[in-house]
Design brief:
By secondary structure, the protein is mainly beta. It has one domain. The chain is 6% helix and 45% strand. The protein is globular.
Protein backbone atom coordinates (compact mmCIF):
# COMPACT_ATOMS: atom_id res chain seq x y z
CA UNK A 1 0.00 0.00 0.00
CA UNK A 2 1.21 3.49 -0.79
CA UNK A 3 0.74 6.09 1.93
CA UNK A 4 0.87 9.67 0.64
CA UNK A 5 0.84 12.93 2.54
CA UNK A 6 0.44 16.16 0.58
CA UNK A 7 1.15 19.35 2.51
CA UNK A 8 0.24 22.59 0.75
CA UNK A 9 1.46 25.70 2.56
CA UNK A 10 -0.04 28.86 1.03
CA UNK A 11 1.31 32.31 1.79
CA UNK A 12 1.28 35.87 0.48
CA UNK A 13 3.71 38.78 0.21
CA UNK A 14 3.58 39.69 3.90
CA UNK A 15 5.57 36.54 4.78
CA UNK A 16 7.96 36.17 1.82
CA UNK A 17 10.97 37.25 3.89
CA UNK A 18 13.84 34.96 4.92
CA UNK A 19 12.74 34.49 8.54
CA UNK A 20 9.33 33.22 7.38
CA UNK A 21 10.93 31.08 4.66
CA UNK A 22 13.00 29.34 7.34
CA UNK A 23 9.79 28.60 9.24
CA UNK A 24 8.26 27.09 6.09
CA UNK A 25 11.38 24.99 5.48
CA UNK A 26 11.05 23.46 8.93
CA UNK A 27 7.76 21.79 7.93
CA UNK A 28 8.32 18.50 6.12
CA UNK A 29 5.59 16.26 7.60
CA UNK A 30 2.40 16.51 9.63
CA UNK A 31 0.80 14.14 12.08
CA UNK A 32 -1.78 11.89 10.45
CA UNK A 33 -5.30 11.67 11.83
CA UNK A 34 -6.20 8.68 13.98
CA UNK A 35 -8.92 7.24 11.83
CA UNK A 36 -10.10 3.88 10.59
CA UNK A 37 -9.46 3.64 6.88
CA UNK A 38 -10.56 1.05 4.44
CA UNK A 39 -7.66 -0.98 3.08
CA UNK A 40 -7.05 0.00 -0.53
CA UNK A 41 -4.20 0.69 -2.99
CA UNK A 42 -3.42 4.29 -2.00
CA UNK A 43 -4.04 6.31 1.17
CA UNK A 44 -3.83 10.11 0.75
CA UNK A 45 -3.74 12.70 3.54
CA UNK A 46 -3.95 16.31 2.30
CA UNK A 47 -3.02 19.04 4.77
CA UNK A 48 -3.62 22.68 3.81
CA UNK A 49 -1.70 25.26 5.79
CA UNK A 50 -1.63 29.02 5.58
CA UNK A 51 1.03 31.47 6.72
CA UNK A 52 0.22 35.12 7.29
CA UNK A 53 0.89 37.94 9.72
CA UNK A 54 -2.69 39.12 9.22
CA UNK A 55 -5.77 37.99 11.16
CA UNK A 56 -3.88 35.97 13.80
CA UNK A 57 -6.83 35.64 16.11
CA UNK A 58 -9.17 34.61 13.31
CA UNK A 59 -6.93 31.80 12.04
CA UNK A 60 -5.62 30.60 15.40
CA UNK A 61 -2.02 30.57 14.17
CA UNK A 62 0.97 29.33 16.09
CA UNK A 63 4.19 31.25 16.83
CA UNK A 64 5.33 30.68 13.23
CA UNK A 65 2.18 32.43 11.95
CA UNK A 66 1.11 29.09 10.41
CA UNK A 67 -2.38 27.66 10.70
CA UNK A 68 -4.02 24.45 9.47
CA UNK A 69 -7.31 25.12 7.73
CA UNK A 70 -7.95 21.71 6.13
CA UNK A 71 -6.90 18.13 6.90
CA UNK A 72 -8.57 15.53 4.67
CA UNK A 73 -7.98 11.81 4.35
CA UNK A 74 -9.17 9.38 1.70
CA UNK A 75 -8.20 6.00 0.27
CA UNK A 76 -8.18 5.23 -3.46
CA UNK A 77 -8.01 2.20 -5.71
CA UNK A 78 -5.69 1.45 -8.63
CA UNK A 79 -7.47 4.03 -10.83
CA UNK A 80 -5.14 6.78 -9.55
CA UNK A 81 -2.00 5.21 -11.02
CA UNK A 82 -0.63 6.83 -14.16
CA UNK A 83 -0.98 4.77 -17.33
CA UNK A 84 0.20 7.29 -19.90
CA UNK A 85 -2.99 9.34 -19.88
CA UNK A 86 -4.18 12.29 -17.85
CA UNK A 87 -6.18 11.16 -14.81
CA UNK A 88 -9.32 13.08 -13.89
CA UNK A 89 -9.79 13.68 -10.15
CA UNK A 90 -6.27 12.54 -9.36
CA UNK A 91 -5.25 13.05 -5.72
CA UNK A 92 -1.81 14.18 -6.95
CA UNK A 93 -0.68 17.48 -8.41
CA UNK A 94 -0.61 17.75 -12.21
CA UNK A 95 3.17 17.73 -11.81
CA UNK A 96 3.21 14.23 -10.26
CA UNK A 97 2.34 10.80 -11.57
CA UNK A 98 2.61 7.50 -9.73
CA UNK A 99 3.14 4.19 -11.53
CA UNK A 100 2.79 0.89 -9.70
CA UNK A 101 5.52 -1.59 -10.62
CA UNK A 102 4.95 -4.93 -8.82
CA UNK A 103 5.68 -4.13 -5.14
CA UNK A 104 7.29 -0.74 -5.79
CA UNK A 105 6.06 2.66 -6.97
CA UNK A 106 7.69 4.98 -9.49
CA UNK A 107 7.25 8.64 -8.61
CA UNK A 108 7.36 10.74 -11.78
CA UNK A 109 7.61 14.53 -11.98
CA UNK A 110 7.36 17.17 -14.69
CA UNK A 111 8.19 20.85 -14.49
CA UNK A 112 5.61 23.54 -15.20
CA UNK A 113 6.85 24.00 -18.76
CA UNK A 114 6.87 20.22 -19.37
CA UNK A 115 3.35 19.29 -18.27
CA UNK A 116 2.58 15.79 -19.45
CA UNK A 117 6.23 14.83 -19.99
CA UNK A 118 7.09 12.98 -16.80
CA UNK A 119 10.49 11.66 -15.78
CA UNK A 120 11.03 9.16 -12.98
CA UNK A 121 12.58 10.84 -9.93
CA UNK A 122 12.49 7.88 -7.52
CA UNK A 123 11.31 4.31 -7.19
CA UNK A 124 10.03 3.50 -3.72
CA UNK A 125 10.42 -0.13 -2.72
CA UNK A 126 8.91 -1.96 0.23
CA UNK A 127 9.29 -0.04 3.53
CA UNK A 128 10.98 2.93 1.84
CA UNK A 129 10.19 6.64 2.22
CA UNK A 130 10.39 9.35 -0.45
CA UNK A 131 9.69 13.08 -0.58
CA UNK A 132 9.03 15.55 -3.43
CA UNK A 133 9.08 19.31 -2.77
CA UNK A 134 8.23 22.08 -5.22
CA UNK A 135 6.82 25.61 -5.21
CA UNK A 136 4.26 27.48 -7.29
CA UNK A 137 2.60 30.87 -7.46
CA UNK A 138 -0.70 32.11 -8.78
CA UNK A 139 -3.27 34.88 -8.55
CA UNK A 140 -6.71 34.96 -7.00
CA UNK A 141 -9.22 35.43 -9.83
CA UNK A 142 -11.45 37.76 -7.86
CA UNK A 143 -8.76 40.19 -6.67
CA UNK A 144 -5.63 39.65 -8.76
CA UNK A 145 -3.51 39.32 -5.61
CA UNK A 146 -0.53 36.96 -5.84
CA UNK A 147 -0.26 33.91 -3.62
CA UNK A 148 2.55 31.40 -3.26
CA UNK A 149 2.53 27.68 -2.43
CA UNK A 150 5.06 25.27 -1.03
CA UNK A 151 4.03 21.71 -1.96
CA UNK A 152 5.43 18.73 -0.06
CA UNK A 153 4.60 15.14 -0.98
CA UNK A 154 5.68 12.35 1.35
CA UNK A 155 5.44 8.75 0.11
CA UNK A 156 5.77 5.54 2.16
CA UNK A 157 5.43 2.06 0.68
CA UNK A 158 4.31 -0.16 3.58
CA UNK A 159 1.70 -2.66 4.68
CA UNK A 160 -1.66 -1.35 5.82
CA UNK A 161 -0.86 -2.59 9.35
CA UNK A 162 2.02 -0.06 9.62
CA UNK A 163 -0.35 2.92 9.60
CA UNK A 164 0.04 5.20 12.62
CA UNK A 165 -0.27 8.98 13.14
CA UNK A 166 3.52 9.42 13.07
CA UNK A 167 4.18 7.39 9.91
CA UNK A 168 5.98 10.29 8.18
CA UNK A 169 7.98 11.49 11.20
CA UNK A 170 11.25 9.98 9.94
CA UNK A 171 13.42 13.07 9.50
CA UNK A 172 15.42 11.95 6.47
CA UNK A 173 13.65 10.11 3.64
CA UNK A 174 15.38 7.40 1.60
CA UNK A 175 14.81 9.51 -1.54
CA UNK A 176 14.22 13.23 -1.93
CA UNK A 177 13.64 15.46 -4.95
CA UNK A 178 13.33 19.26 -4.80
CA UNK A 179 12.34 21.68 -7.54
CA UNK A 180 12.71 24.99 -5.73
CA UNK A 181 14.95 27.01 -8.07
CA UNK A 182 12.17 28.62 -10.08
CA UNK A 183 8.94 29.98 -8.67
CA UNK A 184 6.52 28.89 -11.36
CA UNK A 185 3.16 30.45 -12.15
CA UNK A 186 0.44 27.81 -11.92
CA UNK A 187 -2.38 29.77 -13.55
Amino acid sequence: MLFVQNIVLSYQKDVRYANYANQRRSIRFWELPTTDLEENEVFVNRVCLGQSTLNKTFYGQDEKNIHCYRNMTKSYGAEVFYNGRFINNSPFSGRLAVVKDDDSYQIKYCGKNDLGFYSTKMTIGKDEYGRVIFNERGTYEYSGIWYYELNIYNFVNADYSKYNPKLFFKKEPDYEFEDMRKLRYNG
